[in-house]
């Protein structure tokens, strides 16, 4: 089992060019929404947000942003940090955040490790990692984000009693994640019945990637882990 990969856990960062609207917002609004791990994090993460929030959640690799934006809209009193290094996805989400007046979202467009190391200890009430890059080839498995070291990072940032939620349609990555969680003392899998990992969480909006997986015959799994 891979221990730790000292490199990036994502692939390419650029796809289609940003639209003029996205490019403008990247210049005008991204600077106020972008987290800056070069300065110390505030002791109270709630102070990061333009709206009063009672707790803070994290989504690593939000892709098209469907889930991130849905959770932010349905939970206006929760601060949500969204991380996504792919510029096209960030551009799309940024338009929705700005045009939707979402005051409870902060963003970061680089490696999630930098933010996990920056966050104060036990500062998160929930963390999501949904459909991460599975790095199919065995020689690339070391680039999978779920690893002992990154689980240490999640464990440090999450409050005891909180949840880490993971979704994937790739059986080998689901198995990989379960094995790593089994070997990590800070987490336990909460499933008691098959529906606990076959059915998505309450309020689940679906994502474009999930819809594609279903069209292609792959079955998503939804894993919930308790931070002890």
Automatic annotation (TrEMBL):
Keywords on record: Methyltransferase, S-adenosyl-L-methionine, Transferase, tRNA processing
Catalytically driven reaction(s): guanosine(46) in tRNA + S-adenosyl-L-methionine = N(7)-methylguanosine(46) in tRNA + S-adenosyl-L-homocysteine
Keyword ATP-binding: no
Domain of life: Bacteria
Pathways per UniProt: tRNA modification; N(7)-methylguanine-tRNA biosynthesis
Enzyme Commission number(s) from the entry: 2.1.1.33
Entry annotated with the keyword Transferase: yes
GO cellular component entries: tRNA methyltransferase complex
Residues holding S-adenosyl-L-methionine: 59, 84, 111, 133
One Gene Ontology molecular-function label: tRNA (guanine(46)-N7)-methyltransferase activity
Entry-linked InterPro entries: SAM-dependent_MTases_sf, tRNA_(Gua-N-7)_MeTrfase_Trmb, tRNA_methyltr_TrmB_bact
Residues that bind substrate: 137, 169, 207-210
Function of the molecule: Catalyzes the formation of N(7)-methylguanine at position 46 (m7G46) in tRNA.
Protein name: tRNA (guanine-N(7)-)-methyltransferase
Organism: Pannonibacter phragmitetus
Annotated gene: trmB
């Amino acid at each position: 089992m891979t221990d730790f990969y000292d490199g990036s856990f994502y692939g390419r960062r650029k796809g289609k060019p940003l639209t003029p609207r996205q490019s403008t917002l990247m210049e005008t609004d991204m600077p106020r929404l972008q987290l800056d791990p070069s300065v110390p994090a505030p002791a109270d993460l709630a102070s990061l947000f333009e709206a009063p929030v009672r707790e803070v959640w994290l989504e690593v690799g939000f892709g098209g942003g469907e889930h991130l934006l849905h959770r932010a809209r349905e939970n206006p009193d929760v601060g949500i940090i969204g991380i996504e290094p792919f510029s096209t996805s960030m551009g799309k989400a940024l338009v929705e955040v700005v045009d939707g007046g979402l005051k409870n979202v902060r963003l970061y467009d680089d490696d999630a490790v930098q933010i996990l190391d920056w966050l104060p200890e036990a500062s998160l009430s929930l963390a999501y990692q949904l459909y991460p890059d599975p790095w199919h080839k065995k020689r690339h498995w070391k680039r999978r984000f779920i690893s002992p070291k990154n689980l240490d990072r999640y464990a440090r940032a999450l409050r005891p009693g909180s949840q880490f939620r993971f979704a994937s349609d790739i059986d080998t990555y689901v198995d990989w994640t379960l094995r790593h969680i089994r070997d990590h003392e800070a987490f336990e899998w909460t499933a008691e019945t098959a529906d606990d990992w076959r059915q998505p969480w309450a309020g689940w909006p679906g994502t474009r990637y999930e819809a594609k997986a279903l069209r292609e015959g792959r079955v998503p799994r939804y894993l919930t882990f308790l931070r002890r």
